[in-house]
Design goal:
- By secondary structure, this protein is mainly alpha-helical.
- It has one domain.
C-alpha cells in the first residue's frame, strides 16, 4: 500500500514562492483599493449614479482563491509529498492548471491594470491588446494547442525525469510554464477581462470541452501503464516504502476523472456567461423596438 505520510516533511516552505504570492496579493489589493477610490471620485464629480463605486468584490475573492490554490500546491503538504509521490505531483498540476489559472482570469487583472493607468498608459495598453502577437495568443486554437502541448509534453519520460531531478528546471521552467499555459488558454474563454476580440460563446464552450481529450488520454496512459514511467518516483518508492504502481495509477485516475469534473465546472461558468449575454442582448433589442414604436406611433 502507498503510504500517505510525506517523507519530506509536512510542508515545503519555498521562500521564493511565498514572497511572490504575498507580493501578488498585496499588489492586487492595493490596485483594487486604488481603483475603488478613483471610481468613487469619478462618481462624485459627475453625480453618476450608474457608475460602480468599488472594484467588484467577486474579482478580489477570485484572485485570493487563486493565490490560496497556488499556496496549497507549492507550500502546503502537496509541496512536500510531490517530491516522493506522483499523485501529489499530479494534484499540483490540477491546482495550477485548472483552479488557480482560471480563477486568476476571473479576477480580471488586465482590467484592473487598465483602470489604474493614466490616459497615456491606457492608450498604450489598448494598442498592445489589439496587436498581432496578442491576437494570436488569444486565439482559442493557439491556447488549446499550447495547453495540450504543455500538459502532454511535460509528462513525457525525458521531460518529467529531468524536471524531477532539476530544482531550477522545476522552479523556473515547469511551474511558470504551467501557469502561463493556463492563463493563455482560459483568458479568452471565461470571465469579462479586457480583450480585443472575444470568441463566440459556442467556440468558448467547444474549446473548454475539447480540453477533456488530452487530459483523458494522459490520465488513461498513466493509469494503465504496466510499468513505472518515471525513475525518480521508483527511487522514492524503494527508499520510503511507497507502492510505486499504486501511486502511479492513482495519479492517472486524478488526471482522468478529476480533470473532467473541473472542465465541466468551467464549461458551466462559460454557459452561464453565454446566457447572461443573451439576456442583455434580448433586453437591448426590446428597448430598441420600444423606441422605434414610440417614434412611429403618434
Amino acid at each position: 500500500m502507498m503510504t500517505v505520510t510525506p517523507a519530506s516533511g509536512a510542508i515545503d516552505l519555498n521562500v521564493f514562492v511565498l514572497v511572490n504570492l504575498i507580493g501578488g496579493v498585496l499588489l492586487y489589493l492595493w490596485a483594487a483599493r486604488r481603483a475603488s477610490r478613483a471610481s468613487r471620485a469619478s462618481r462624485a464629480s459627475r453625480a453618476d449614479q450608474n457608475t460602480s463605486s468599488t472594484w467588484p468584490i467577486a474579482n478580489t475573492i477570485a484572485f485570493l482563491a487563486a493565490m490560496t490554490a497556488l499556496a496549497l500546491a507549492y507550500l502546503g503538504p502537496f509541496g512536500a509529498w510531490a517530491h516522493d509521490a506522483f499523485w501529489a505531483h499530479m494534484g499540483q498540476h490540477l491546482l495550477v492548471l485548472m483552479i488557480a489559472g482560471p480563477l486568476i482570469v476571473l479576477s480580471s487583472p488586465i482590467r484592473l491594470t487598465f483602470v489604474n493607468l493614466g490616459t497615456v498608459g491606457r492608450r498604450r495598453m489598448i494598442r498592445i491588446l489589439r496587436s498581432r502577437p496578442v491576437e494570436i495568443l488569444t486565439n482559442p486554437i493557439v491556447g488549446w494547442v499550447l495547453f495540450a502541448t504543455v500538459l502532454l509534453g511535460s509528462h513525457t519520460q525525458l521531460v518529467m525525469n529531468w524536471a524531477l531531478i532539476s530544482h531550477d528546471g522545476m522552479e523556473f521552467v515547469m511551474r511558470p510554464l504551467y501557469l502561463a499555459a493556463a492563463l493563455i488558454f482560459y483568458y479568452p474563454l471565461i470571465g469579462c477581462d479586457l480583450i480585443a476580440r472575444r470568441p463566440a460563446p459556442s467556440v468558448r464552450l467547444m474549446s473548454l470541452g475539447l480540453m477533456m481529450i488530452p487530459e483523458t488520454v494522459l490520465g488513461m496512459v498513466i493509469h494503465f501503464a504496466p510499468v513505472p514511467l518515471y525513475w525518480p518516483y521508483e527511487f522514492a518508492a524503494s527508499t520510503y516504502g511507497i507502492d510505486v504502481m499504486t501511486d502511479q495509477k492513482f495519479a492517472g485516475a486524478l488526471m482522468w476523472a478529476l480533470a473532467m469534473v473541473l472542465d465541466g465546472m468551467w464549461m458551466m461558468v462559460a454557459a452561464i456567461e453565454w446566457w447572461r449575454d443573451q439576456e442583455k442582448e434580448t433586453r437591448r433589442l426590446e428597448k430598441q423596438e420600444e423606441r422605434e414604436r414610440e417614434r412611429v406611433l403618434p
